[in-house]
Design a protein that fits this description.
Leucine-rich repeat-containing protein 41, Leucine-rich repeat, LRR (right-handed beta-alpha superhelix), globular, 15-stranded parallel sheet, alpha/beta, two-stranded antiparallel ribbon
Length: 756
């Protein structure tokens, strides 16, 4: 109720707690609290946040970082009077503003958040958190893993987390890694086996209660008459009763109870993300792995497709009833600590074709029929994905219940063993909610075939949502273009595909038996909009790229990195193919591709009337060029009104070529160029100042009408004359946005000698 001028003077004097409560009043009075939150950041955090120019809400940025720092014990709230308010609960009051959170090291943050006194904090995070990151994890004990289970169950299965990312884990703990992967995919035991604050998860209990009520209502509507008719019909057919069914009746559970138990299981929600489209289609008979994540509604179809599985229908129904009776008896009791391992681990008995759960001996032969060696499972011991007897960490979905899953999975610098790859493959095979998959520097090697197997199984689901795939590693185990063919032929609905390798594996070509080449696979018409390929110094053969370009009529961005051109005609063939096959191409990028002898093709690219962004990064453009070539580039860009961005980093422009580029904006130019990148080009302060003066002259001649808005100057030699550099930057910033850095040019002395 305070007048605006009084509120304006009061806001900077408030504690964080009071400032947060006054946000609504300030907004109604037309006052912005952003400068106050920015000052709080500078005073409390004492660091410059990355990409600060892109921060739109300093309130959210401060409170989100504040939450993380308090959680990890790196910020003392008594250090600033604005934080020290007895009404202020740091984690509780800042948690609604947290959209991404990083847990690291020994997962101390997970233990704190899973504590009972932070239950309200966890509820807030379940509604606000979207991105969960794990970084530099270490091995953990059982109690820490239990806390992590509670956290993931609440934030993913019953929360809003849509992205899980893991970074820099040189020696991953298999137990912990499999646990995070499986729960991210939505798999875990039934809620009544999961202890949450000394009791079964309340949300799971409510869902089970709702499902039970729905099942009871359906049974009431169906009536006992229909059940008797079905029972009589079954007996008339002379179907023998399995021993397990007889035992169930002896134990006090009659035919009605047994049937209801089975029906209840079949009425469970489908094994897919709740956010996904509920429209379903039948699973093909060639992929009938129940453990791979098929929906219970598909169960009868799967059994009818497979004669071996059809024989075990009776035993399955008995096992389902037995398992549900056991769970009913255990309801309300504490979960045994070993329960946390039973679902994650399976142990392969030597000589067995199946991977059995630790508790599978209590299930008898029924367990053997539903393990990861089921027919149609994505990765079951074929060449390139071989099983080893006695291996641990292989994920079994036999007893799983499917919860909500994340849509983005990112694994950066985490070595994946064969066991972990088989686990990930099985998870991927039914992860229909997955939209973005990033596997970066995981040391896959031959295990890439195992991952591809899981992806191919996933592609058979009509409700698959995968749209972005990024795979990068040090060594390639198969040619880049072959991998592109494999992925794109299975997923024509992809929007973005990125394949990147540093070095070529010397054993490439010696592929495991059973993994034929994909290079000849037919690629259907695709939705691909962005394609990025980093070749491990492989020759760029347009003939291999041509089928991809022809199938990708919607392609808008193409990036080719570290390719070698086997002949002088190859680049011309590529440009011709792009013009014919990809009329919508807007961005074209070459990085570390030697274009010194391809001046004609470079000029043709800059003349393209459709391209809006062209990048020649470290392409040695001017290594053997003449002055005429630079003039032709400038004149070509001046005549091209469609080109918006020209990026020339690492091409040894030097001072004189930079000054010449200012003529792109001369009075007679029809260029619409907005962005120019001249990073890493041996530019000195005096050259930058001369470029600035020439640019100012052209702007004055054009009456101030110029579209140039961004100039990038990273890693140039501006530290050699700080005063001149500051003057040039000051004058440039009056014309456009300048992005540069403080770089020590002494590191580039060798490059300096080469251009003198």
């Amino acid at each position: 109720a305070l007048p605006g001028h009084l509120l304006r003077g009061l806001l900077p004097l408030l504690t964080v707690f009071r400032l947060e409560r006054a946000e609504g009043a300030a907004r109604r009075a037309g006052l912005s609290t952003q400068p106050i939150w920015r000052k709080l950041w500078d005073d409390v955090m004492k660091t410059r946040p990355p990409n600060s120019e892109n921060i739109t809400c300093w309130r959210k940025k401060f409170l989100e970082t504040f939450f993380s720092n308090v959680l990890h014990g790196v910020l003392d709230i008594s250090s600033d009077w604005r934080l020290n308010d007895h009404h202020f609960s740091p984690l509780l009051h800042s948690s609604p503003h947290v959209s991404q959170l990083t847990l690291c090291n020994m997962l101390q943050g997970a233990v704190e958040l899973a504590a009972e006194h932070n239950q309200k904090v966890l509820e807030n995070l379940a509604g606000s958190l979207r991105i969960l990151k794990f970084q530099h994890l270490l091995s953990s004990d059982q109690s820490i893993r239990r806390s992590l289970v509670l956290l993931l169950h609440r934030l993913i299965h019953h929360g809003s987390v849509s992205q899980v990312s893991m970074y820099s884990w040189p020696v991953p703990d298999t137990v912990l890694l499999v646990l995070i992967l499986s729960m991210s995919a939505g798999f875990w035991r039934s809620g009544n086996a999961l202890v949450y604050h000394s009791s079964p998860c309340g949300l799971c209990r409510e869902e089970d209660k709702a499902q039970s009520q729905e099942s009871a209502q359906e049974r009431a509507e169906t009536g006992p008459r229909d059940e008797r008719e079905r029972s009589d019909g079954g007996n008339q057919k002379g179907t023998p009763r399995a021993p397990e069914e007889t035992n169930a009746e002896v134990n006090g559970c009659g035919a009605d109870a047994r049937l209801n138990s089975v029906l209840s299981g079949l009425r469970n929600p489908p094994l897919r993300n709740q956010a996904c489209n509920e429209a379903s289609s039948k699973v093909p008979c060639d992929h009938t792995s129940f453990q791979g994540g098929s929906s219970p509604r598909y169960l009868s179809d799967q059994l009818s497709c497979n004669p071996v599985l059809r024989k075990t229908r009776r035993r399955l129904k008995s096992a389902v009833g037995k398992k549900r009776r056991c769970l009913r008896q255990r309801r309300g009791s504490y979960a045994d600590p070993e329960d946390l391992y039973d679902f994650v681990f399976t142990v392969a008995r030597e000589g067995n074709s199946g991977l059995l759960d630790k508790n599978s001996t209590t299930e008898g032969e029924n367990a053997e029929n539903w393990t990861s060696s089921s027919p149609g499972s994505p990765c079951t011991g074929h060449a390139g994905c071989k099983k080893r007897g006695g291996s641990a960490g292989i994920f079994s979905l036999k007893a799983a219940r499917r919860f909500r899953s994340v849509s983005t999975l990112e694994l950066f610098s985490i070595p994946l063993t064969g066991e972990t790859c088989r686990t990930l493959s099985n998870l991927l095979s039914s992860w229909v909610s997955l939209e973005n998959l990033v596997l970066s520097y995981n040391g896959l090697g031959a295990n890439i075939f195992c991952i591809l197997s899981g992806l191919r199984a996933l592609s058979r689901h009509s409700d698959c949502h995968l749209r972005v795939v990024r795979v990068s590693d040090v060594f390639s185990h198969m040619p880049c273009m072959e991998l592109v063919h494999c992925i794109l032929s299975a997923f024509p609905q992809l929007h973005t595909l990125s394949v990147s390798f540093d070095l070529k594996n010397q054993l490439e070509g010696n592929r495991p038996e059973g993994n034929p080449s994909c290079s000849e696979a037919e690629i259907p018409e695709s939705c691909l909009e962005q394609l990025e390929i980093r070749f491990p110094r492989e020759p760029l053969h347009t003939a291999f790229l041509l089928p991809v370009l022809k199938a990708s009529k919607s392609l808008q961005q193409l990036s080719l990195d570290s390719a070698t051109l086997p002949s002088s005609q190859e680049l011309g063939l590529l440009l011709e193919a792009l013009r014919e096959c990809n009329p919508n191409l807007k961005k074209l990028s070459f990085h570390d591709v030697n274009l010194a002898e391809h001046q004609k093709e470079v000029l043709l690219l800059l003349q393209d009337p459709v391209l809006q962004e062209v990048t020649f990064s470290f392409c040695r453009l001017f290594e053997s060029s003449t002055t005429e070539f630079l003039s032709e580039i400038i004149n070509t860009v001046k005549r091209n009104s469609s080109l918006k961005s020209l990026k020339l980093p690492g091409n040894r422009l030097g001072n004189h070529r930079l000054v010449a580029l200012a003529d792109i904006f001369s009075e007679d130019s029809s260029s619409s160029l907005c962005q120019l990148d001249v990073s890493s080009n041996c530019i000195k302060p005096n050259g930058l100042l001369e470029f600035t003066k020439k640019l100012e002259g052209h702007i004055q001649q054009r009456g101030g009408q110029i579209q140039f808005t961004h100039l990038r100057l990273f890693q140039n030699w501006l530290d050699q004359d700080a005063e001149t550099a500051q003057e040039a930057l000051r004058r440039l910033k009056a014309v456009c946005s300048v992005v540069n850095d403080s770089w020590d040019s002494s590191q580039a002395f060798a490059d300096y000698i080469s251009v003198m």
